């Protein structure tokens, strides 16, 4: 079997995961449309725009030719932004092997259709969605690239595909668990970015630890609520893709979503924030998707609702917080219907 792995694309996360694969002595080729970036990776062994101050392994090769990147690859890892996933997969279809393992590490939705990334990949490649693997969990690229201890989860309806992905990535500093709940892992990884935006905004407003703890806790409740409605196992949200990724994304300055929220809390406009970031902030698009999904499924997502109005309807962040605090009294254990609780605990 070939030891070649193709990685699409060369952002911070794709480059970090490619470096994990290189550490396993695999033949890794990363693809980018940007010729200057490809030249930098191949000649200077760096990717300065996305991972400043990091020296990459000379064994990591880059190309602008997707057919070259994918030719003969036993596995393809897709780490494209959610907005580019369909176009990348459309290009990939003509050159990927029929039996290649397909893994994606993108946390978001296709806004126009509200589809998860595995659904988009399945449609474009003509593959069964159940054979696709999603990689998620608490994992900043800036720490993975420096070989800090990291634990993630790979999920697929196919236990064989999940086990193959686990074997592909797992090493002494990158521990990988498997999970059969691909839908839950995808939803948890996407929705937590909304709560991270809110946590950053709370910090930017100077509201302190009490407010942030409440946002994380109630945020987890609402993303679990919508996750159950969309077919997830609620226990997934208590795992690495849920609580684990929520904590790391909502509390770290490495997090683009936290940083974007912080700047919004300081009073900066969304356009100014996104321009200053220089990289994709998936939580912004995901907030838009969550607002639509909550209406479609009839599930209350008060934090996502308020953030949507801050991001897209010019609501003042302080007003949004006051709206959350002024909601009607609730009981805490409203996060799942009784029959769902009984289903998972029978």
Automatic annotation (TrEMBL):
Entry keyword annotation includes Lipid biosynthesis: yes
Residues bound to NADPH: 12-13, 33, 50, 107, 141, 256, 280, 282
Localization of this protein: Cytoplasm
Binding residue positions for substrate: 107, 256-257
Similarity remark: Belongs to the NAD-dependent glycerol-3-phosphate dehydrogenase family.
Protein's job: Catalyzes the reduction of the glycolytic intermediate dihydroxyacetone phosphate (DHAP) to sn-glycerol 3-phosphate (G3P), the key precursor for phospholipid synthesis.
Name recorded for this polypeptide: Glycerol-3-phosphate dehydrogenase [NAD(P)+]
Species: Paenibacillus algicola
Gene this protein is translated from: gpsA
């Amino acid at each position: 079997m070939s030891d070649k792995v193709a990685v699409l694309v060369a952002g911070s996360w794709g480059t970090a995961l490619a470096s994990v694969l290189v550490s396993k002595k695999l033949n890794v080729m990363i693809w980018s449309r940007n010729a200057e970036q490809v030249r930098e990776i191949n000649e200077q062994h760096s990717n300065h725009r996305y991972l400043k101050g990091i020296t990459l392994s000379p064994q990591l090769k880059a190309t602008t030719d997707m057919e070259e990147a994918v030719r003969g690859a036993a596995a393809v890892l897709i780490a494209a932004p959610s907005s580019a996933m369909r176009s990348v997969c459309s290009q990939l279809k003509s050159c990927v092997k029929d039996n290649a393992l397909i893994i994606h590490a993108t946390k978001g939705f296709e806004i126009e259709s509200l589809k998860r990334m595995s659904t988009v990949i399945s449609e474009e490649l003509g593959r069964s969605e159940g054979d696709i693997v999603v990689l998620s969990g608490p994992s900043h690229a800036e720490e993975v690239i420096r070989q800090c201890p990291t634990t993630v989860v790979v999920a697929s309806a196919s236990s064989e595909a999940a086990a193959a992905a686990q074997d592909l990535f797992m090493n002494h500093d990158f521990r990988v668990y498997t999970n059969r709940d691909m839908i839950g892992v995808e939803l948890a990884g996407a929705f937590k970015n909304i709560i991270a935006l809110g946590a950053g905004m709370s910090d930017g407003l100077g509201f302190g630890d009490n407010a942030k703890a409440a946002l994380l806790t109630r945020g987890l409740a609402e993303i679990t609520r919508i996750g159950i409605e969309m077919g997830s196992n609620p226990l997934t949200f208590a795992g690495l893709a849920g609580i684990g990724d929520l904590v790391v994304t909502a509390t770290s300055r490495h997090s683009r979503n936290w940083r974007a929220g912080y700047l919004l809390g300081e009073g900066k406009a969304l356009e100014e924030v996104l321009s200053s970031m220089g990289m994709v902030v998936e939580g912004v698009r995901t907030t838009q998707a969550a607002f639509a999904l909550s209406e479609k499924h009839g599930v209350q997502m008060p934090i996502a609702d308020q953030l949507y109005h801050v991001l897209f309807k010019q609501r003042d962040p302080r007003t949004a917080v006051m709206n959350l605090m002024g909601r009607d009294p609730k009981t805490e254990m409203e996060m799942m219907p009784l029959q769902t609780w009984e289903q998972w605990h029978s």
